[in-house]
Amino acid sequence: MDPDRASDRGLNLLMSWNVHLRIDPGSGVPVYRQLMNQIRYYVSSGAIATGDRLPSIRDLARGIGVNPTTVVKAYTELENDGFLDRQQGRGVFVADQARGLSSAELDRALRDSARQLVVEATQLGVDIERVVHLVRLEYQRVERESETDRGQRHA
Amino acid sequence: MDPDRASDRGLNLLMSWNVHLRIDPGSGVPVYRQLMNQIRYYVSSGAIATGDRLPSIRDLARGIGVNPTTVVKAYTELENDGFLDRQQGRGVFVADQARGLSSAELDRALRDSARQLVVEATQLGVDIERVVHLVRLEYQRVERESETDRGQRHA
DNA sequence: TATACTGTATGAGTGGCACCAAACAGTTGG
DNA sequence: CCAACTGTTTGGTGCCACTCATACAGTATA
Predict the structure, then answer these.
(1) How far apart are CA A27 and CA A61, in angstroms?
(2) What is the separation of C-alpha B37 from the centre of its chain, rounded to a whole number of angstroms?
(3) How distant is C1' of C10 from CA of A2, in Å?
(4) What is the count of residue pairs from A and B with beta carbons less than 8 Å apart?
(5) Residue-wise over B105-137: b if at least 16 C-beta within 10 A, else e?
(6) Closest Cα partner for A110 from B132, B120, B28?
(7) Measured CA B51 to C1' C28 distance, in angstroms
(8) Model pTM?
(9) pLDDT of A91 strictly over 60
(10) CB of B21 within 8 A of CB of B14?
(11) pLDDT tens readout for residues B30-46
């Protein structure tokens, strides 16, 4: 079923980079948002430095198997946040004043998803401890999938 | 701003019922899905019994301030699940074979939301314990809002 | 200058969700 | 019977998020 598609459940991408972007198409999280999240994280962690050039829109889009416009959307929003610097004809670079998200900002970024989960749980009468347990389970599952990806790269 | 609107952040509804439905419009959870969740819960908890008649589509829609079509959607899906029994001209009743969701089914119902939260968290590099903490915070917040609603009914 | 790379812009299409209006059809009770 | 309640169906609007395809425009370099 559509072998051109770069991924089915998940994908890791080794660009001309020291990092790999991992897109989970079935997670319900928009692709452009997943890109934003990870780029932000890699800058926070120091894996990408100020002034570094990011993959070109087309390269990245081809690499993760999505439409270039989707990448544009991620890059555009990150530029509006003062995080990236897009230069027509040259490329996209990490802005000089780019900085990782603060703890408060990280919390805020996750608040909507957390609220959605909690609202559904309360309406279904599910206990908070059960919810926490489910979150931990999901976390392990996602981590396990990441491990699988890394393993495949060694093979 | 639009005083006809029955609710802004949340709402409790006392129908000709011993239960009240609470819709959270800003939660990101579709209204029809919130209705499904709560009806399922009230059957599970015994607050609504097999064979009971539910509020009419138009009454419920008016009560919670949404369009009748939205209620129809919730009722329809619950009927497809064998949960409700719609009888033209008579009303909507809890099906004889209606039963609360099993633990496994509850877990599955929450899995998508949990996954979404977890995927974003990992991509942002947020620790699992931080995620759990955020979930607990949100839970308290939602609970506090429920308390506020109940308080207003006494005033 | 020509080519091959960059980013830019626009219009279209899809799907989910909520809303609205109007008509249709079955049931009940005065 | 008739009026007032039920649910049913249809078609439409609007909005938003996401994706796609296809052009357009600037930059670099051989």
Answers:
(1) 19
(2) 4
(3) 28
(4) 153
(5) ebbebbebbbbbbbbbbbbbbbebebbbebbbe
(6) B120
(7) 19
(8) 0.85
(9) yes
(10) no
(11) 999 999 999 999 988 88
